[in-house]
Amino acid sequence: MPNKLRKGYWIGATPFGYTNLNPGNGKIPDYVVNEQGKLLRKAFLWKAEHNMAHTEINRKRTRYYRQKVK
Q1: Bridge partners for 31 per DSSP
Q2: Is the pLDDT score of 68 beyond 70?
Q3: What are phi and psi of 28, to 5 degrees?
Q4: Strand, coil or helix: what is 68?
Q5: Can you tell me the distance from the alpha carbon of 15 to that of 30, in angstroms, rounded to the nearest whole number?
Q6: What SS3 class is residue 70?
Q7: Helix residue ranges, H only, the chain
Q8: Rounded Cα gap, residues 37 and 41, in angstroms
Q9: What is the model's pTM?
Q10: Which residues have C-beta within 8 Å of that of residue 32, sequence separation ≥ 6?
Q11: Would you say 14 and 37 are in contact if contact means Cβ atoms under 8 Å apart?
Q12: Residue predicted with more confidence, 48 or 69
């Protein structure tokens, strides 16, 4: 396991906001950002760049999901 960490492999479960396109034991993982990850990035930028309150970020997130469903 230390060798994998030194090589930059992620050890453990797939991080939130990513999908592993190559799951399985012993396989090299191929992580890509999924829809949750894209929204998480937007929320982080809203907070960092515009200093939005958590409630406003939640309202924007809710609107984003409603638009995706339609």
Answers
A1: 20
A2: no
A3: -75, 125
A4: helix
A5: 12
A6: coil
A7: 2-7, 35-50, 54-69
A8: 6
A9: 0.68
A10: 18, 19, 21
A11: no
A12: 48
Tell me how far apart the alpha carbons of residues 20 and 15 are, in angstroms, rounded to a whole number. 9
Cα separation, 54 vs 48, in Å, equals: 12
Q: What is the pLDDT of residues 1-52, one digit of tens each?
A: 788 788 777 778 888 999 988 887 767 788 899 999 998 999 999 999 999 9
CA 40/CA 34 separation, integer angstroms: 10
- What does the block give as tokens for 32? 């890509």
Q: How far apart are CA 18 and CA 47, in angstroms?
A: 21
Extents of the domains making up the chain: 1-33, 34-70
pLDDT at 70 over 60: no
Number of CB atoms found within 10 A of residue 37's CB: 16
